[in-house]
Amino acid sequence: MGTTGNELKPRIGLFGRRNQGKSTLINFITGQEIAIVSAEAGTTTDPVRKTMEIKGVGPVVWVDTAGIDDEGDLGALRVSKTMQALAQVNLALIIFSENKFTPFEENLVKECRDKKINFLLIYSKTDVHNPDDEMITRLEKKYGQKVYRVTTAEAKHRDELLQAIRDNLPQTAYAHKSLLGDVLKPGSQVVLVTPIDSAAPEGRMILPQVQVLRDVLDNDSVAVVCKETELAMQLGRMKDVDLVVTDSQAFRYVSQVVPREIPLTSFSIVLARHKGPFEAYLQGTPTLSAIADGDRIAMLESCTHKATCEDIGRVKLPNLIRKFSGSEPQFDFISGFDQLPHPLQSYKMVIQCGGCVVTGQQLESRLLPAMQAGIPVSNYGMAIAYMTGIFDRAVEIFR
User: Fold this and answer.
1) Are 90 and 118 in contact (CB under 8 A)?
2) Per-residue pLDDT tens digits for 220-248
3) CA-to-CA distance for 61 and 171, rounded, in angstroms?
4) Distance of alpha carbon 89 from alpha carbon 112, whole angstroms
5) Which range is least confidently modeled, 101-105, 156-160, 233-237, 252-256?
6) Structure confidence by residue, pLDDT tens digits, 372-389
7) Most CB atoms closer than 10 Å: which of 173, 302, 354, 390?
8) Structural domains of the chain, with CATH
9) How much is the pTM?
C-alpha cells in the first residue's frame, strides 16, 4: 500500500459473483466509466479504484472487484485479492441478480459481520431479471435490512443508492475527529520533538508529525517543534509547557529531559488512541515481558517504504525487544494488508505501527482477527514506552 492519500478516504467496495452487474453498477452510481463492462464473465480482474465526491460525505474511493466465484489457479488469486479488498472497505455493496443468493453471497455477509463492516444488499439488473418478491422478503427478514432493487435504466435508483450509502457509511470513516481536542485548550503550549535520522524522508517531516502539528493548530494552541538535542534548551526558554509529544525512538532520552510534572506522550501513541483499539493495546502491551526464544511476533506496517538501518519497525524495535526480553524471538514484517506468512495462532503477539496512512476502520479490521483469537496486540509507540519503563507516564494523559 502506498501513501498517495487515498488510504485516508473512506472506501466503498462492490462485491459479488461474476457477471452480476458490479462494473455496470459502479459506472452508474459514479456517472463515470470507471470499470470495463462486458457480457463475458470475469472481465474485472484486479480491484479497480476511483475517487469520487459524495455530497454530505466528501471524497470516497470506489473499489470494483473480481467475481468471488472465479475459477482456476488465476481465479483463486483474483478471489484472494477481492477478499483482501473487502477487509479494507468501510462499506460493502453486495451485488446479486437472477434470483440467486448463493453461498458466495452468504459468505460475503458473514465476512462483513465478522469484520464489523457495514454492508448493503443490492439486487441488480431488475430490468433483465425480475426479482422474486418471496426471495427478497426472506433475505430482508434473515439479515434485518432492506434489499435494494436497482436497474441502471432508472435514474432515481442512483439517488436512492447514494442516500443509502450516506446512511450506512460509518461517520468515523469521513468525519474529522481531533487527535488532542479533549486534552488541549486554547493557548496550550505543546512541544513536538522530531528526531532527524536516515529513516526520515528527505526535506520533510513524517506524516504523524504533520498530523499532530496541524491538530495542535486546529485547537488554537501553540506548537514548538525541535529536535531532541535542542529540547532541554527549548524547555528552559518556555514559561509553561502543557504537553510534550516525541517520536517514540527518542522516548528514553526525552523522558529524562522533560520534568515529571509535564505530560509526555508520543506521536504513535496519539495515533493509537485516535484510531486504534486503544484498550486492547493497553492490555496487550505487557506481553512483551513474557517473550521467549522462538516466539513469533508479527510487525504490521500500514504503508510500504524502503527500510534503512535506522528503521523503527524493522530494526530498532526488534533490537529493543531482543534486549528487553533477553531472548531471540522470530519477527515477520507485513506491509499494507498483505497476508501473514504463518497461521495466526502461531504468533505470540502482534505489534501495529501508528497507522497514519489508513482509516481507523481499516486499522481495526486489520487487527480484529488477532483480537478475536485472543492474541495480544500492541502499537510501536506503546511497545517502546513499555520497554523504556515509561508506559504509565506515556498513556496517563489519555486515561
Assistant:
1) yes
2) 999 999 999 999 999 999 989 999 999 98
3) 15
4) 10
5) 156-160
6) 999 999 999 999 999 999
7) 354
8) 6-173 (3.40.50.300), 189-270 (3.40.50.11420), 280-396 (3.40.50.11410)
9) 0.71
